[in-house]
Specification:
The protein is α/β, with parallel strands linked by helices and about 525 residues long. It contains 20 helices and 16 strands. The protein has helices spanning about 5-10, 20-30, 45-55, 70-80, 95-105, 115-155, 160-205, 215-225, 245-250, 275-280, 295-300, 315-325, 355-360, 365-370, 385-400, 410-420, 425-440, 470-480, 495, 500-510, and strands at about 10-15, 35-40, 60, 90, 110, 205, 210, 235, 260-265, 305-310, 330, 340, 345-350, 375, 410, 445. The strands form five sheets. The chain has a five-stranded parallel beta sheet, sandwiched between helices. Strands 9-10-13-8-14 form a five-stranded parallel beta sheet. Strands 6-7 form a two-stranded antiparallel sheet.
């Protein structure tokens, strides 16, 4: 059963889009490619009537139309169509609509703005499948009709019994072959559908990392390269860029994924306890240690240890960390016994470790041990093309959490999100979207307040001679005073600053910011 080039070029095609330039572009493209039966419509309400008359082989259907959107058109076609195959190729500029359209019954999608080579290829491929379905259905009906006629004739005469039996056997064999072909085709289409769904998800979502910018794609590539190895990874980037998320992605793609990923936040561990937290202690190792404790390295044996904000680790602990990275062994506090472990190290920092080495605050030998495979996460201001995808992701997340039904973004909100510099990066954006979802009325996202941007709070008289550290210190102290020194929670300083509470506490220690008594 072969589909010829003539069959394809003479196939019936319907273009449905409420934008006339899109309709004209697609129509001209198909006519120039040799297709002879191309129909167009800008009214989605007439699609079912046109399809009843013409039984189109492919319907190019825009998803976003005012009178009746593409999902409603597909539902109407499915209710009106006697066949189980819906020959719809959707047109959309919304990434999240692609997976939804495939689940609604569409067989493929074309992204806007159009890539003309992609358009011709996808239409040609889908026509092959659609025409094959029609031929199979026609042959199936013909075979069923033949079987019925021969059965009727057998009841009328016994003289032709032998001949009729042979013909029936042949017809049944042909029918079985046809059903096998249909099953194979269905299996193939199902596999292609699953693949397309995975491709849509993979294009815009790498585990928990959302985006498709060039800079983020390089991060994805680096993760794929290093994840299967046991090499030490150093994640670099500003606060809120997603270093912890990337660490989880590396672990989940490694051979250690069935073993634990243990996280150590070096900013939250007191200097007096960090050694026992990392390496463990025996009972009575020091005053107050009335029980034995297993350290993080032992817990991570066979798995991965993520050292977040490694730049905050005290110098005296850096030497001990260097030893375990080199030799894979250590002693618990209060015990002479050496323990060997097999742990992969992933470290992260928002500091410039080279500058820290120069200033004597970080060991040079440890830096080179950690810097085997560095991955720098770009700040959000350098990959603003990812902001719409992130906003959509967070709106869906907080719709579920808060119980809202926001499905559109106002133009003012869109511009505000793109123009902001996002000093707190993705974490700041997430907090901003959560606030916006809470404050927005109706189903449109609106930015009703202004963002927490250091640049807006710099005094105009002597800002040029103040250092960034001094400005940040002043800003943190000011926000803490405004919140009554409350750090966590909905009205806490961490949320207003776009920082993790543990990161805020670390910076307070770093700058010596303490609450002043009245």
């Amino acid at each position: 059963m072969k589909i010829t080039a003539s069959d394809i070029l003479n196939a019936k095609i319907l273009i449905v889009d409420d934008q006339e330039p899109n309709v004209l572009l697609l129509e001209q493209l198909l006519l120039d490619s040799g297709y002879t039966q191309v129909t167009t419509s800008m009214d989605p309400l007439v699609v079912c009537d046109l399809n009843r008359i013409n039984r189109y082989d492919v319907i190019l259907l825009d998803l976003q139309m005012p009178k009746m959107d593409g999902f409603e058109v597909m539902a109407a076609l499915k209710a009106d169509h006697s066949m189980d195959y819906l020959p719809v190729l959707v047109l959309t500029a919304q990434p999240n609509h692609k997976l939804q359209a495939l689940q609604a019954g569409a067989k493929d999608f074309i992204s806007k703005p159009f890539d003309l080579v992609e358009v011709k290829t996808r239409i040609h491929n889908m026509l092959e499948v659609s025409l094959l379905y029609k031929k199979l259905a026609k042959n199936n009906l013909s075979l069923e009709d033949t079987v019925q006629k021969r059965t009727l004739e057998l009841t009328k005469t016994n003289l032709l019994l032998g001949q009729e039996i042979d013909e029936r056997k042949k017809a049944e064999a042909s029918l079985r072959e046809t059903y096998i072909q249909i099953k194979q085709l269905k299996d193939k289409l199902q596999a292609e559908n699953i693949y397309l769904q995975k491709e849509v998800a993979r294009q815009f979502n790498f585990d928990e990392i959302i985006g498709n910018s060039k800079l983020l794609s390089q991060v994805f590539q680096n993760v794929e390269q290093v994840a299967p190895m046991d090499a030490t990874v150093l994640l670099l980037g500003e606060t809120g860029t997603g270093k912890g998320v990337v660490a989880r992605a590396i672990h989940s793609r490694s051979s250690r994924k069935t073993r634990p990923l243990i996280t150590v936040d070096c900013t939250t561990l007191p200097a007096s306890l960090i050694e026992s937290e990392l390496f463990g202690r025996e009972r009575g190792a020091f005053t107050g240690s009335d029980s034995k404790q297993i350290g993080r390295f032992e817990l991570a044996d066979g798995g991965t240890l993520f050292l977040d904000e490694i730049g905050e680790m005290p110098l005296e602990m850096q030497a001990k960390l260097l030893r375990i990275i080199q030799d894979g062994e250590f002693e618990r506090l209060g015990s002479p016994r050496t323990i060997k472990v097999d742990v992969r190290i992933i470290a992260a920092t928002n500091r410039n470790l080279i500058e820290e080495v120069r200033n004597g605050k970080f060991r040079e030998d440890l830096y080179y041990r950690l810097n085997v495979f560095p991955i720098t996460l770009p700040p959000l201001r350098q990959r603003k093309e990812d902001i719409p995808l992130l906003v959509n992701h967070f709106v869906i997340k907080f719709n579920k959490k808060i119980g809202k039904l926001i499905d559109t973004i106002s133009q003012e909100a869109h511009q505000a999100l793109l123009q902001h510099q996002w000093p707190g990066n993705v974490r700041e954006l997430e907090s901003a979207i959560e606030r916006a979802v809470i404050l927005s009325e109706g189903n449109t996202l609106q930015i009703l307040g202004r963002f927490d941007n250091f640049e807006k709070r710099v005094p105009s008289d002597d800002a040029s001679i103040k250092g960034l550290v001094e400005l940040e210190c002043e800003h943190i102290a000011k926000v803490l005073q405004q919140t009554g020194w409350r750090i966590e929670g909905h009205k806490g300083a961490a949320l207003l600053l776009g920082l993790n509470p543990s990161t805020l506490r670390a910076r307070m220690r770093k700058y010596g910011i303490i609450r002043q008594s009245n």
